[in-house]
Amino acid sequence: MKTYLRTACLLVLLMGLGACSDSSTQHQRQPPPNILFIVLDDVGIDQLNGFNSSPLAVTPQTPSIDTIAGNGVSFASFYTMPECSPSRVSFFTGRYPFRTGVNAAILPDDLPSAQISPFEETIPKVLATRGYTSAMIGKYHLGGPELNPDGYLAPSVMGWDYYAGNIYGGPPPLDTTIGGQYDADTFGGDPERFSCGVPLGPTRGVCWREDPGQTPQMDYQHGAGYTGKECLALGGIPALDADGQFATTLEGAAAGSAARELLGMDPYPDFSIMNGFYVWLRTQVAQGVLQQSLSREYMTVAETDASIDWIRAQTGQGPWMLTVSYSATHVPFQPPPDNLLPHAGIEAPNCTGGLAQRLLGNQMIEAMDKEIGRLLVGAGLAVQADDGSLEYTPEGSNTVVILIGDNGTFIPIVKPPYNPTRSKGTIYETGVRAPMIVAGPGVAEPGRTVDDLVSVVDLFQLFGEIAGIDVHDAVPSRRTLDSQPVLPYLRNADQDPIRSTVFMEIGGGQKPSGMTIPPCVLSFSGANICTDILFVSEQMCRDTGGTPFGPEGAPPAGLDGCCAVRDAALYDDLTIVPLSAWAIRNARYKLISNERAPCDGPPLEFYDLQATSLTNPAGLDNPEDELLQQGPLNADAQENYTQLYDTARALLASEVDCPGDGNLDKRVDQRDLDGVEANFGGPSVFDFNNDGVTDELDRSIVEHHFLRDCSVPGPLQAARE
Q1: CB 3.0 to 4.6 Å from 509: which of 66, 110, 187, 340, for a disulfide?
Q2: Mean pLDDT over the full length of the chain
Q3: Which pairing describes strands 399-405 and 34-40: parallel, antiparallel, or unpaired?
Q4: How far apart are alpha carbons 236 and 206 in whole angstroms?
């Protein structure tokens, strides 16, 4: 391992990317580089023009991201997990979901076994050994606060010195009542009137604002008024008149207030109601101290502001890693402030239609791109030219910038030639391919693209490589890492492929026993996708734009699964999301194994991903290209099928189940008994039977397996017992 470390140190020093701890190179020590890690939520490879060159794709304008790519290396075959939590846990631990238990987006009902374990060696814990200070700003979604002993303090427990942002999986739902002022049944029965949580259009009107004493006051800007979005962006709530329309005069706003009072409604808007990206719960954790407040700042702007403030506070301190985990473009789709957009005057008519959502998706990315440019300038890494363009010269900095999407794009805004029916939440190419860009001092031949396979778990090793840390030494040997190197691609433009395969998987998380999940159908451009693993409530299904079929859902209500929805013949064509799936691919072929609903198709799928200029230019795994249904495989395909199947089975078998081991050391001993006692009566990672409570049953599981060493191979372990 010393040889590996010296080699890694040499690479780091040659690139100017950091310092090493090996004694033979200490006299050459340089300040370790800072790491700025930018995560775009639900931005797949189809969204950025640097990765999707299809003439059919109307991609957003992203000059800031394009500038980073022009000064760095783009990775065109970067593979994530199909959903956010599994991807995020993978890149912060370097471990596949079947090892961490986080195989699906964490929902409020998921038990601790489906959340990141406090015993994982996360990258902030590893970097701390080299003196790094770590912060995360923005979306968290690794575990908690529900059903987690650490609650809102989870980021601190997982190693981050500072956290500020939205700890949940996405922004809150849109407030279609405009602060409780509008009720569709009372005012015209139009539930879509404020589908974006704000009056749209150029109309200027009255804005409710809170004074320092939190008393609502009407603000008309001396007669100039505000557009609905301007009011919302300022932290206010647009005032409605007596007809439930945007009030264009102070008299109209006063009449609306009086009319609501006569109807038994509150005459003033409710400033406690959350509203998508504009009004949300901000959680801050610093040195284990929790603070929470209701933020009324557009989320992407707030995330950038907090990031710049934190970076500036590190001046003169040691090396740092900042994860800027933007919440865009997670649903709900909502128009950003106009001053963040390059297309003045172009506005979506609503936030529910397919065309409108595609426009909103582009605008949310464009707004985020502008804020990424402001982030680089605020961090001292770039300057704004007179023409507004970004001038970024990473060679003069000591900061490596890594930008990724966390998984594929969500259904409504997928761009051609990628497949919306096989997007986020599925194991198919559109669901697991995302952009990745790395820029920093010493990158060889910037502006190039690497086509070789890179996995999301490899980021863990890249973070270590930048800091001069061998993560395989830093993590306990009994905890298997799946990471492989990335740094050689940055140093050497002619680097041979490092990975031969990438592995992806998705499951249903871990809900309390006996819990049922209502089926939800997501419809888009004639495609209908049914899932009974993603949305734990009918309201969550509705908030995502779906149709629920639970006890109070769409008629016929009470359907007990997607097969029942299919049997009801409600849709001409219904795709059912598998209950769980894994996939493995090499440079050309891809094998998928599904746990399907009883009414669905065969468990195995096999694809040739070689791109064809006309029928499959992106090399996708579309239904018509599935090989096993086309007859016997040819010799080359059969050989690859066998190799991929054997590799996947060996990989899955490498993680040995260890009942009674709660602290991830592959031993069942006194520390596990202590864990049961410390968490007795509540949920925890020591709840081995996943019934939602740590109790006598879990103690008995530890006692039954006491002193078992799960690292010993099966037959030998059986002999020992």
Answers
A1: 110
A2: 93
A3: parallel
A4: 10
